[in-house]
């Protein structure tokens, strides 16, 4: 499919919106009228002196929508509206999030609420962005909880993310920088990785202290951090404790994640190390679906791991589930939601399957099917109803590309158990120092909106071989704070 970008600079949003309707198509972007001799479908987007115009034609079908421009119009929104009208008319598909393509709809809603008030902002969502009423209500609920937590972040706040990019095996849907330790060449990297990661944590803590920053939250993610041994986990936790002042910390999370990596020894090491929140992620309680996605554990193993975590003293546990997994049904997914609720975890996060191109499912050519999107929407609807009836409230939300039905991922929590790190990171409230392979430090100006990023090497072997160069990159942290103050 050809996307023509004529006389405007909105290529990025135009391409993202087109992919909502044609997620499996290869899109070729051009900046002039195309000489289409191959009979390809063409979507023309154009800003003229007087109109915003969208035209679709493929030799047999033609759809056109245009709107008159005024001096006060948001040209990008007006053009997106014409695209949306053409594409919904052409396909018959009406996405629940309307023409919104951004990953943080609640952040957008918070900004609109401050500009025009709560009810007017909600009306704007449904009338101007074509967001379905139930998704607008979800965004409104999330925005209220997010904003309350955002307000607790101070100019001297910071958080720490620790990347452990190893897993027992790689799940078929995973697009993270994660390596299966079933490979001997990967497993032998771990000792050097842990040693250098400890060094990076120590150096980062030194800079945080020099800048007078106050650590609010710590998050070990990956990958699966509990792929490491109890001793290796203990080493890293002790390093964090030595490098940072933890006296004011409000949350300390480790993604235990895969039940097949959880042992009593590891849980004890986490608890002794000061961890206050862990995740135990079943993804589904359907054993056949677990096999379909390459998870090497059973539903029974999840139940056992959860029980061990409670016995170890953890009173803030998250469980992840994914809507739309291969072989899952609405009834099966509902059973998984009900099963998760029966454990009474403090958090339940409901994701929608995203077919990232770097995942095994993506590279194998798995396509996004509209009926799968419809089924995923039914699953999310059930999850919302079941969870809110049990006093779990939606508190954070984000969206990804190539997600079934262009739907969302939502975190639900009991009151007082919202994951602070998720909101601080997603809503860019304050600096998040990130250490390890694939980690991205996000520096936030204490009294402004300026943000700069420092990228670590992506893969563990690059991280190890390029560690001295990485240390030089981190000097930008001090430069940033010298520039924007504290």
Polypeptide structure, described:
The chain is of the alpha/beta class. Helix content is 42%, strand content 21%. The chain has helices at residues 11-21, 75-91, 105-116, 118-128, 133-150, 184-187, 190-211, 230-243, 264-272, 287-292, 299-312, 330-342, 360-363, 370-389, 420-426, 460-465, 467-473, 476-484, and strands at 2-6, 28-30, 42-47, 51-57, 62-68, 157-164, 166-167, 179-180, 214-222, 251-257, 277-280, 317-323, 347-352, 393-399, 408-413, 431-435, 440-444, 451-455. A nine-stranded mixed sheet has the order 14-15-13-12-11-10-9-6-16, sandwiched between helices. Strands 2-1-3-4-5 form a five-stranded mixed sheet, with helices on one face. It has a two-stranded parallel ribbon with strand order 7-8. Helix 12 runs parallel beside helix 14 (370-389). It is globular and about 65 Å long.
Task: Bin the strand percentage.
Answer: 15-25%
Total count of strands: 18
- Poorly predicted spans: none
Percent helix range: 40-55%
Helix/strand/pairing class, anyone?
Answer: alpha/beta
What is the CA-atom radius of gyration, in angstroms? 23 Å
Tally of individual helices: 18
- Distance N to C terminus: 49 Å
Mean pLDDT: 93
Q: Given the C-alpha coordinates, what overall shape results?
A: globular
- How can the largest sheet be summarized? 9 strands, mixed
- Please list the strands of the largest sheet in the order they lie side by side: 14-15-13-12-11-10-9-6-16
